[in-house]
Design a protein that fits this description.
The protein is mainly α and about 325 residues long. The protein has helices spanning about 1-15, 35-50, 65-75, 90-95, 115-120, 125-135, 155-170, 210-215, 235-255, 275-290, 295-315, 315-330, 330-335; strands spanning about 175-180, 185-190, 205. A three-stranded mixed sheet has the order 1-2-3, with no helix packed on it. A hairpin with a 2-residue loop joins strand 1 and strand 2 (about 185-190). Helix 2 packs across helix 3, helix 10 (about 275-290) crosses helix 11 (about 295-315) and helix 11 crosses helix 12 (about 315-330). The longest helix is centred in the last third of the chain and has 20 residues, at about 235-255. The protein binds heme C. Heme C binds near residues 90 and 109.
């Protein structure tokens, strides 16, 4: 019972050190520090920080950015601290002005830490810090990545734009004409019928604001507009991807001589009366949009549950547009 409670308290530290896959294994040393160990590490952190923080809070040597950084980069890094062996620990050598690598001492300039400590200006004496290393429990970071880490991510607003232009056979020319404002080249969408979207930072810059708002709704960021990119699947992302995919699929299918979606000779008039032709298109779209070699069952399912109902609602063209949009709104398209 006691062990379980302790384990629960320890869990956040385990994650902080990126050693989640060691969880539950009592004998394994890569379990993260216990609360008592954390408290002792914190004491050393607090004693060293005033002398070190000036140079070590950011970047690859951000040892003093947080207690977690200090523990994973210094305390439990065998290249810097060897548990039980202060004389073999580079940290102790550096503090005492006996560094064996690129630097002889830390801080780099002025008296080394041990001298500052000898003058009584630090929270711990050098002897106390040596004793901390002598009594330190060995722990190693798990070399495996944390199971908590995010493994899939969605296409960014820019990715969506690039992928759709390429996969649908569209380009800026389908939405904008060249314009000029105060002699600065712009692109103007004039009507918003095609639901264009664009980064405000594109060159030439967009004249209207609606394409820019759509881009922001898709999570696109912009430095000049002080807008941070949003990589979540937000309701606004889903709303815009639905509208845009339907409208752009229609544009692509209606665009004369566009081979992106339909093979030469095929027509949006060909409906389920010619099931084999429609299924051949759907099979090609699986590969085109999802890079998936679809089974007959996959193709039959999209045919009967997506294409045919949309055709019955209106006509075959309507069914092609809706099915094309279905492939784009699908998780296999949005995530990678
Ligand atoms: C004036 C700036 C400065 C201060 C203050 C400073 N350091 Fe450093 N430290 C550095 C630089 C620069 C390096 C080398 C960085 C590199 O190699 O990229 C370094 C490297 C280190 C290393 C790595 C040594 C190795 O061989 O891998 C450790 C450990 C370290 N510092 C600890 C400390 C500690 C502990 C303190 C406080 C007692 C401290 N530093 C104070 C600038 C500083």
């Amino acid at each position: 019972m006691r062990k379980r409670i302790l384990f629960k308290i320890v869990a956040p530290f385990v994650v902080a050190l990126g050693v989640a896959s060691c969880e539950g294994d009592e004998s394994n040393p890569c379990g993260g520090p216990t609360p008592e160990e954390r408290a002792r590490n914190q004491e050393v952190f607090d004693a060293l920080a005033p002398s070190c923080q000036g140079c070590h809070v950011t970047g690859a040597r951000g040892y003093f950015a947080s207690i977690e950084a200090f523990e994973s980069l210094v305390v439990y890094n065998a290249a810097v601290v060897v548990p039980g062996k202060p004389d073999t620990s580079e940290l102790i050598r550096l503090l005492e002005g006996k560094g064996t690598r690129a630097f002889k001492q830390m801080p780099i300039a002025g008296p080394p830490f041990a001298e500052i400590a000898a003058s009584g200006a630090t929270k711990m004496t050098m002897a106390q810090i040596r004793a901390w290393v002598t009594n330190l429990e060995a722990r190693t970071a798990d070399p495996l990545p944390s199971i908590e880490a995010r493994r899939i991510t969605r296409l960014s607003a820019d990715d969506v734009g690039r992928a759709l232009y390429q996969q649908l056979g569209l380009s800026d020319d389908d939405f904008y004409v060249a314009a000029s404002s105060f002699d600065i080249p712009h692109k103007t969408a004039q009507s918003d019928d095609g639901y264009p979207f664009t980064s405000p930072d594109s060159i030439p810059g967009p004249y209207e604001n609606l394409p820019v708002e759509r881009y922001a709704a898709l999570g696109g960021g912009s430095a000049p507009n002080q807008l941070k990119a949003d990589g979540t699947v937000s309701p606004s992302f889903l709303g815009v991807i639905t509208q845009v995919s339907q409208r752009w699929c229609a544009l692509a299918l209606d665009k004369a001589g566009n081979p992106a979606l339909l093979p030469a000779g095929a027509s949006v008039q060909t409906g389920s009366a010619d099931a084999a032709s429609v299924k051949a298109v759907l099979r090609a779209w699986y590969l085109h949009f999802h890079a998936v070699d679809a089974t007959d069952a996959d193709v039959d399912r999209v045919f009967s549950t997506v294409f045919v109902p949309l055709e019955m609602e209106k006509d075959a063209r309507n069914a092609y547009i809706g099915t094309c949009s279905y492939f784009i709104r699908h998780p296999d398209w949005i995530f990678y």
